[in-house]
Amino acid sequence: MSKIFNDPTVFQFFTEIGIIQQLASTKLQSVLPDDLKMSHFTVLNHLTRMGKQQSPAQMASALQVTKAAITNTLQRLVKRELIEVIANPNDGRGKLVSLTDKGKLMLEQSTVSIAPLIIQLEQEFGQSSFNKAIPFLETIRKYLDEERS
After folding, report:
1. What digits encode the pLDDT tens for the residues 60-106?
2. I need a labelling partner for 101 at 20 to 30 A (CA). Which of 48, 64, 76, 144 fits?
């Protein structure tokens, strides 16, 4: 097998992140309440993290999913009354998405349901390990976000 990289460390880094993401998503999906899907949790969490209404297009871009995928997810969340989609007052054709009180409660319940896993990881590896890792991960995320087209 030919050697593609002089040093495969960066490739291994992203391989590990990918595996962690898959394992974590599977674990989180198994404990989310009320048949909530990971994609639904991701949208609720994103809206909370952003702290403001967003258009479906902004959300699709931020979450790196297709417009069709975000539309499907948003429709399911509207049916469950976890979000509301309203007309954008600044653009008659546009829409804005926000959490409902029921959506905020569902996110809180979800956070409670994943707390045992978070506590277990914190006890196993220590808060300082996570404190050390976060700045570098944030730097990589910001770089990749700025470099996307």
Report:
1. 999 999 999 999 999 999 999 999 999 998 887 899 999 999 999 99
2. 64
User: Do the beta carbons of residue 67 and residue 60 sit within 8 Å?
Assistant: yes
Residue 33's domain is classified under what CATH number? 1.10.10.10
Q: Which of 34, 33, 63 is nearest to 46 (CA)?
A: 63
Question: CB of 29 within 8 A of CB of 110?
Answer: no
Does some domain include residue 11? no
